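Predict structure. Chain length: 565.
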Amino acid sequence: MSSLKKFVGDYAYSYIKNIAVDADKIRKALVTPQNARNVFSGLDEFQIKSICTEISATNTFGTIRETTQEEIIEDFNKAGYDTVIFDDEEKIAEYKKYYADGEVICTYNNLAERMRQYHMIVAVKKDIDKIQRSKAPQRDDEYGTSILNIQIAKNGSHMSIKNRYNHTVNECDSTLNNNLDMLVLGLQAKVLGYYNIASLNNNKCYYNRIVNINGIYLKYNREAHNVYFGDFVLDNANGARFTDHSKYYVKVNDDYWNEPYVLDFQKKEVIQLFDVRYQNSKSALLIRAMKENLLNSGNKEEADNLNIIFPDATKELLQYRKKALQYVANNYGYDFQKPFKVTGLLGKFTAKSIEKATVSNCGILLICKGSNVKCVRLNKGKFDIDARNGYEYSIDYYCSKKIFETDRKSGKLGMFIIQQDDKYKRVVKNTFTNSYSFNRDEFDKSGCNITKTRRQLDNRLYNYKANKRKREVDAISYESELKNIKEMFSKLKSELILKLSKTETVDGYEKIRDVFDYTFVLIVKRIKSLENKIIQNGFCSIKEATDSITILKNDITDKMKKIEG
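Prediction complete.
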C-alpha cells in the first residue's frame, strides 16, 4: 500500500488506507501520479472513497453482492440506526406515528399497494423520540434522516429514500441523494444485492472537471472538440495519450481563443491536434528552442516564460507565414534581394532590448499570439501599431496600444524582427483604406447622378419606415409586461435564496453557481434598461420591444429551471 500512497498522494491515501481498494485498477484508471493528485485535490472524503470504490469495482458491475439481513443491519447500526425493518407491512405501519401532522409520507396512503410494487426497508435512529426538528429544516439533517423509508422498485429501475420532513424540504424523495453509501460505504450494494439486484440504472455523479472515458479518469483544464486536456490528453477515439512526461508536455493556454498543443521532446516537435489553421504561431520558435536544448522536459513548465533570442530566424518565419516577406516587401518597401536579417525572440521585450539584440532601433515586428501573427512597426525606438493592411497575407494588427503593451509585458509571446538598412528600401505609397469595396457613381444621359438620387430616395424611405415603426411602438403600453418580468425575477431571487439556505452538498452549490453567475447581473441590467425604455418610449420598433421582453422572460425561466432541476 506504500506504493499506492506515493501514487495518489497523502491527502487521498489518508481516506482510503483502511478500505478495500484495488491498487492496480486505481493506477490504471488514473494513469499518472500527478493526475491522481489533480483528481482527488478538490474532493471530500466521501467523494474520494466513492471514486476509488467505483474504480475498484470495474468489470464487476452486473455482479450481485451476496449478503444477509444481519450484515445490512450491522452497517445500519454503525450509522446509528438501531431498528431496521425489512418488508413487514404491519411493523412499517406502526412507524407512521413518527411523522408530524401534514408531513406523513404518501406511502402510508396505500401502504399495501406500494409494497406490491416496491421492496421496502425502514431504518430508525436510536432515541428517535429525543431528536428535535430543526428551526431551519435541511433535507439531510439529523431530524430529516432519523427515520428512513427506503423503497426499491422490484424491477430494479430506481430507488427512493423518503425524508421525515417530507415536502417541507426540497427533494424529499432523494434523501442522502438516494445513496446509502453516504451512511456506510458499500451499504448500497448490500441492500440491492439482498433483493437480487446488481445495480440501478441511475446516472453516475460527475465531479467538477473530472471526466471518465472508458474507465480512464482525468482532471482536465480544457475541453476542445470532445478532447480533454489535463496532465495528459484523453478522448473516446484514442484513449489516454502523451502520458510519458519525459517525452511530452501538454500545454493548455490561459484563454479559450488559443488551441492546446503538445510538446514532443523526443522528436523535437510541436504536436497540433486540430486544424492547422489554429496552429500556435510561435511553434517554429519552440521547435528551434527544443532542438537547441533550450526547452526540454526539465524546464517545460516555463515554455511560456522563456527569454531567448534566435539569430537568423528566416526559416522559422517562413515555416509559419510563407507570405510574411512578401507582405513586408509590398507594404514597407523592403528589398529581399539585398541584405536583410530576421531575428526570432521568445519572451518579454522593449524597444531598448530589441536594439541591444539587433543593433538597430527600427524594423517590422511580426508578433506571434495564439494562432495569429500581428504586425507592429519599430520606428527609431518607438512602437507604432498602425500597421498596413495584411489581410490577404494572414497578418493581423493591434486595435489598441493598450492591448499591445499588455501582450508585450506578458512574456508569453514569440516574435520575428525583420530589419534592413534604409538604403535598400524603396518608398511605398500607403494604400491602406478602411473600405473593402468602391462603387463608381452612375450618371444618365443628361448628366444627372443616378447613384446620388437613389441614395437620397433610399434615405427618405428608410426614415419614413423608421418613423412609422416608432409611432407604432409608442402607441403600445408595456407596463404590464414589465410588471410580469419583475414578478418573475422576484420569484427567481426567492428561490435562489431558499436554495442557498438549504444546500449542503458540493453539487448543490455548483447548481447555485450556474445560476448566480455574470449572466444574473446582466439580467438585472437588462430589466433596468427595459424599464427606462418603457418609461421614456425608447423603443424603435415593436419587434425590438417584443424581442427584449421575450429574451428576458426566457432567460429568467431558464435560470428557474436550473434551480428546480
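Summary: The radius of gyration is 34 Å.
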